[in-house]
Design brief:
The chain is built from 26 helices and 18 strands. The protein is α/β, with parallel strands linked by helices. The strands form two sheets. Strands 1, 2, 3, 4, 5, 6, 7, 8 and 9 form a nine-stranded mixed sheet that branches. Strand 8 (219-223) and strand 9 form a beta hairpin. The longest helix has 29 residues, at 36-64. It is globular. The chain binds phosphoenolpyruvate (PEP) and magnesium ion (MG). Phosphoenolpyruvate binds at residues 295, 297, 336, 440, 461-464, 511-512.
Length: 589
């Protein structure tokens, strides 16, 4: 069977299909017969963990609000429903697919049944199922942090068939294992198309429903030159693919090449740091050639733990990261969780005491990040002491998340001073440590000039800045398409923060997902940013793309873009400019 699409990167490759449904963030891949057993055990382990977490939340909620505990009873019951985990186990066994995919399939089956129901109460139960399935998937993901990790276990000869493939996702894929890709979506894929060409990976887009029609493990030829893919190819098709594939392997970059710092074609140095969640991510950050850790999301040390690490354990962990990265700098962000996440994660005796999660009001816009830390000085001071102790072992910075006012910053700085005083009393005065804030709430962006007077650095967190600036709940699919990094308001805000930092001569970096998208990255450089932090896998591609472009041309591009009124106009300008800029140098066809 041949499916016609739009060839966006030339070349022919063959491989076994791995299906990625990026919108649901699930990967579907075929597992070998001997992996069925371990896969079923993984599923069962996820059920065990989910049960323990739910029982725990239920127990704590019922002490305060018995009327709410039935919500968790329902989820606990569902966990034992034969239509859920056992059904997912059947799918793993029968279709020989990974457990995440099986769980997602079961969710679809459940939703279809619930949607048919006349009773609105029952219809609303889809939300509970979604919540539970989300928990099962979260527990299946334990220890797996990035899509690149998800793709780690693939065979060398895979091709990726996806509903869509955004550049930030594509930038994280290990293209030494994935030979080529094809996507259903054809719109908005130009960023990915540019990326595919710069990686020399054959690609066909605009295939409509290929990700539905193709089975995981099916043999596929992707012919980017002929704008088609061949499902179950003949021997002749395969021979042609084999012949051409040799010419289309991405070049292995050597150690020296990876360590080379990023710069634009006209010599503007760009600092590329890595975002990490776990100490184990350090290896990936160093391999990718990160100049430092621009964002360590410390709250991940809470995830899955039965009890929050005490000061010594936190110190050991921070120390490991700082020493592992030395002499490069590590920016440790203090815990960024909300009430619900804190309640779900903190179950140990130390932290359960005195903790009263408000299950009804807990939200991502409520007590979260620094606000929550300031209401829990006991937790906060422990964390700050642990970080300050780790500063003895290398270069680190402290960063506060979710700051919306100068008062909060002052309170937080006072806590740093108090934590340092605790250590001094113990006979170990810590070294001075730079303190900065994440600018990720519009109020912080608008008062960046005021905040800049009182901090040592800024980090712009566009993931949150975009959703709060545009009032878009990303979880609500009816408005999620309005989540738009290229909205003129976002670009103006970024520029405003960059200028406020320049005036006070403090460093400013940007660590949101936006930086992982090579096309958006170029525009951010045009807006005057020269420091970024991104998922490690995105760093080599960012370097490659930046090396092809001139900073002066990107600045001119940004000036033009800032005069445009709509996202569409901005996208068109960006595409035209990047296409033209790279073509001038003969980099892309
Ligand atoms: C951000 O908000 O842009 C950010 C990097 O932080 P997080 O994604 O952890 O909220
Ligand atoms: Mg954030």
């Amino acid at each position: 069977m041949r499916l016609k699409g739009i060839g966006v990167s030339p070349g022919v490759v063959a491989g076994r299909a791995v299906i990625l449904i990026q919108r649901a963030q699930v990967l579907r891949y075929q597992i070998a017969a001997e992996r069925v057993g371990p896969e079923l055990e993984r599923l069962e382990e996820s059920r065990r963990r989910s049960r323990a977490q739910l029982s725990d939340i239920r127990a704590r909620v019922s002490e305060r609000r018995p009327e709410l505990s039935s919500l968790f009873d329902a989820q606990l019951l569902m966990l034992d429903d034969p239509m859920l985990v056992p059904r997912a186990a059947d799918i793993v066994r029968e279709q020989r697919v990974n457990a995440e995919w099986a769980v997602q399939q079961v969710f679809h089956e459940f939703s279809a049944v619930f949607e048919e129901m006349a009773d609105p109460y029952l219809r609303e139960r889809t939300g509970d199922v979604a919540d539970l399935v989300g928990r099962l998937r979260m527990n299946l993901r334990r220890g797996v942090s990035t899509p690149r990790d998800m793709l780690r276990e693939l065979d060398e000869s895979s091709v990726l068939i996806a509903d869509e493939l955004t550049p930030s996702f594509a930038a994280q894929v290990d293209w030494t294992k994935v030979r080529g890709f094809a996507t259903d979506a054809g719109s908005r894929t130009y960023h990915t198309a540019i990326l595919a060409r710069s990686l020399d990976v054959p690609a066909v887009v605009g295939l409509h429903d290929a990700s539905q029609r193709i089975q995981a493990g099916q043999l596929i030829v992707i012919d980017g030159s002929a704008s088609e893919i061949i499902v179950d190819p003949t021997a002749a098709d395969l021979a042609r693919a084999a012949h051409q594939a040799e010419d289309h392997r991405p070049a292995e970059t050597g150690e020296a090449e990876r360590r080379r710092p990023a710069q634009t074609a006209d010599g503007q140095r760009i600092r590329l740091d890595a975002n990490i969640e776990f100490p184990d991510d350090l290896a990936a950050a160093k391999y990718a050639g990160a100049e430092g850790i621009g964002l360590y999301r410390s709250e991940f040390l809470l995830s899955g733990a039965s009890e929050v690490a005490d000061e010594d354990r936190q110190y050991e962990l921070y120390r490991r990261i700082v020493e592992g990265m030395a002499p490069r700098t590590v920016t440790i962000r203090t815990f960024d969780v909300d009430e619900e996440q804190l309640a779900g994660r903190m179950t140990g005796p130390t932290f359960a005491a005195g903790w009263e999660p408000d299950a009804e009001r807990g939200s991502r816009q409520g007590l979260r990040g620094l606000r929550l830390s300031l209401t829990r000085p006991d937790l906060f001071r422990v964390q700050l002491r642990a970080i300050l102790r780790a500063a003895d072992h290398g270069s680190l910075r402290i960063m506060f998340p979710f700051v919306s006012s100068v008062e909060q910053l002052r309170d937080a700085r006072a806590m740093v001073i108090a934590a340092a005083a605790d250590l001094t009393r113990r006979g170990h005065a810590p070294p001075p440590v730079p303190v900065g804030v994440m600018v990720e709430i519009p109020a912080a962006a608008y008062t960046a000039d005021l905040l800049a007077r009182e901090v040592d650095f800024f980090t712009i967190g566009t993931n949150d800045l975009i959703q709060y600036c545009l009032a878009v709940d990303r979880a609500d699919e009816r408005v999620s398409r309005l989540y738009e990094p290229l909205h003129p308001a976002i670009l103006r805000m970024i520029l405003m923060v960059r200028r406020a930092a320049s005036r006070r001569k403090i460093p400013v970096s940007l660590c949101g997902e936006m930086a992982s998208d090579p096309a958006l990255l170029t525009l951010l450089v045009g807006l005057g940013l020269t420091e970024f932090s991104m998922t490690p896998g995105a760093i080599p591609v960012a370097k490659q793309v930046l090396a092809e472009l001139r900073c002066d041309e990107l600045r001119a591009l940004a000036r033009r873009v800032l005069r445009l009124a709509t996202v569409d106009e901005i996208e068109r300008e960006l595409l035209a400019a990047i296409g033209k800029l790279t073509m001038i140098r003969g980099v892309t066809p």
